[in-house]
Amino acid sequence: MARMATTRRVVISTAAAWLFGFLIFFPILWMVLASFKTELEAFAIPPSFLFFHWTTENYATVQERSDYFHHAMNSIIIAGGSTLIALLIAIPAAWSMAFSPTRRTKDILLWMLSTKMMPPVGVLVPIYLIYKSFGLLDSRIGLVFILCLGNLPIVIWMLFTYFKEIPRDILEAARMDGATVGRELVYVLTPMAIPGLASTLLLNLILAWNEAFWTLNLSTSNAAPLTTFIASYSSPEGLFWAKLSAASTLAIAPILVLGWFSQKQLVRGLTFGAVK
Amino acid sequence: MATRQTQLLARSLLTPAVGLLFIWMIVPLALTLYFSTLHYSLLDPGSEAFVGLENFRYFLSDPAFLASLQNTLVLVGSVLALTILLGIPLALLMDQPVIGRNMVRLMVIAPFFVMPTVSALVWKNLLMHPVSGLFAWLAQLFHLTPIDWFNDVPLFAVILIVAWQWLPFATLILLTALQSLDEEQKEAAEMDGASAVSTFIYITLPHLARPITVVILIETIFLLTVFAEIFVTTGGGPGLQTTNIAFLIYSQALIQFDVGTASAGGLVAVVIANIVAFFLVRIVGRNLEA
């Protein structure tokens, strides 16, 4: 007897799932709503949920007053740059470990994983001092570099697990037909690896975009990405809720959309293949 | 066909990644180790002197260390408990026949993609503000006294924010594991007359043991160094009530400019993280064999 999904059961579980899903999502929704309110309405009691005077002026003011796009551009450069460089370093490494494994491959992989376990605060002092003496504090290149290294183990691991699933017979066949390693990489491996590459790229963009230890500690204004920019709203408490909400909405919207596309790969990527 | 040539090529492709990660791991760590043996204050340049283990003695015997260690453990433990105890029923619920499951999934996963500074400020201002926050209004609605979250229960407030951020991760991993559970096994149990509760205890829960372990280990790695949420909400206060180890080291290094002590603290943090990492690496390593 197959387990029949009775109507009653579907109705109850659907209602419960939507209720809890909505509750979890609510803070984000509430923030988006607040971003369309006037400052007065944003902290009015009792709060208005939908019937307020909708306005988009906060979005305009955020840009005028605080140069939002400058920080958004920093975020794009830092997250994008660090992810691309990490991919460039990781692709050959993962390719090599997936297709020419040696006795030490497993040890190397686990060692790479262990570098990710090092708490950033453990090396905050030397990194800060090194950056200070090389003039890298509050520079985009400095943040690109550190986020790239920080995420490199995850990138290598994700690519490795994807590459390993590519059937080796195809590579052998290409080799028999006389393909060089370079051609093999470009014409055989790359097309098959594109889904894996895409999800690795997405997940790491998200991680780098939201990274808030190094960005808070190593940037102040020039190179400050959105994480640092939003944090600067923490001081004038209570006065700029609508603008804070508008800035926050802009800061998370692109990454939320990317995240929704890559949510299934997230599990795999962040658990290093331990849960499939 | 692993010829000598391809092996050589494979090695040269691997070298840049290994080299960079090696430098990234060794150089800062060696410097931390070196600084930790010095009297080294940025406010007093040129006075660096070797002091042996003095910094460690100072850091470990500082009452702030014990307080922040306790806060760290409470924070990590509570967030783990909340995310797993709420994540299991939520994952079970989402594994049921739900109309529009993909939409529910999107709503549940969303907090994970919100940058920590945004979620901390949204919770602090829009929800938890003692006068104008939504929670205060709800409390008034039920004729209760609104809670002044960041003064009365600051650590709990931080815990709630961080748990909200990590609940999606736990739920998603548990849901993925549930979906790989053999449906026939459950059916067989049902045919044998097992109740829903005993099916859960004897079939589902053992199946979840491994993903739960993975959630615990990975969350612990990240939770040990929670920083941004504290940085933008409480700044470690009031007093030391929300200072965890990561924040303590940060304040010693970049607020008090005491490089030596902060480095000693950094090494203590590395040791704590390594204990957790040891177990995680073993679990992942076992998976690599298969």
TrEMBL record, chain A:
The chain crosses the membrane at residues 12-33, 76-96, 108-131, 143-163, 184-209, 240-261. It holds the Pfam family BPD_transp_1. The keyword Protein biosynthesis does not apply. Its main location: membrane. The keyword Protease does not apply. Keywords: Cell membrane, Membrane, Transmembrane, Transmembrane helix, Transport. Residues 72-262 form the ABC transmembrane type-1 domain. It is found in: Cell membrane. It is a multi-pass membrane protein. Belongs to the binding-protein-dependent transport system permease family. PANTHER family: INNER MEMBRANE ABC TRANSPORTER PERMEASE PROTEIN YCJP, MALTOSE TRANSPORT SYSTEM PERMEASE-RELATED. This is Carbohydrate ABC transporter permease. It comes from Bradyrhizobium diversitatis.
TrEMBL record, chain B:
It is a multi-pass membrane protein. InterPro entries: MetI-like, MetI-like_sf. SUPFAM superfamilies: MetI-like (SSF161098). It comes from the Bacteria. It is found in: Cell membrane. Residues 69-280 form the ABC transmembrane type-1 domain. The chain crosses the membrane at residues 12-35, 73-94, 106-123, 155-178, 212-232, 264-284. Keywords: Cell membrane, Membrane, Transmembrane, Transmembrane helix, Transport. Its main location: membrane. Belongs to the binding-protein-dependent transport system permease family. This is Sugar ABC transporter permease.
